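FYI - complex with 2-acetamido-2-deoxy-beta-D-glucopyranose, inputs then prediction.
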Amino acid sequence: MASRFLLLALFALVFSQAIASDPSPLQDFCVADKNSPVFVNGLVCKNPNFTTPEDFFFEGLDQPGNTMNKLGFNANLVNAMALPGLNTLGISLARLDFAPYGLNPPHTHPRATEVFTVVEGTFYVGFVTSNPDNKLFSKVLNKGDVFVFPEGLIHFQFNIGKTSGFGISGLSSQNPGLITIANAVFKSNPPISDDILAKAFQLDKKIVDWLQTQF
Ligand SMILES: *[C@@H]1O[C@H](CO)[C@@H](O)[C@H](O)[C@H]1NC(C)=O
């Protein structure tokens, strides 16, 4: 009986850690010391005696990002590297700019849920659930609308307006991480063998070879 309880407690502990996001802070703040040669989970704290208001400050999100690229998209991510005061606080922010018909292509953040607010424009957005359902949850968003993309799930945002648009995303990690599906698959370094990709995507190898030159 006691051992069964122990097993249950152990399972609960392991499970709660497996679903945890960024760890909770153990002090008021831990401003990132970008010069530290020490590697820890997150970034090393600088001496709090030398911490200033500038450490908690970032400017420039009023400026649109440059969307002159194939996707017509730019992300300006304010993570703990960009804003050292965010270190250990489990949160970050991004400004997402879109040219007309600009696309933030299917991607995932391995460590963060994302909540997206439309400031300007009209967007078609969505995310896909895990296997085996792979259910698409999608929606058209207008100015002022908010949509949440659950942690780890593949999602996208597409500007369906004739004008440029932008939004602000909150992310539940100081370092959400980004895996762009097409790039990770077709532009890994070194490349994944075209035999593997041809079989995985049920494509002719020539198409795979062509796709591998596109990113
Ligand atoms: C910060 O300043 C206080 C007061 O001067 C001092 O006692 C403390 O040792 C300092 N802390 C560090 C980490 O330097």
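Residues 47, 49 surround 2-acetamido-2-deoxy-beta-D-glucopyranose (CB under 6 Å). The beta strands are 73-78, 92-98, 103-108, 114-120, 123-128, 136-141, 146-149, 154-159, 165-171, 179-180.
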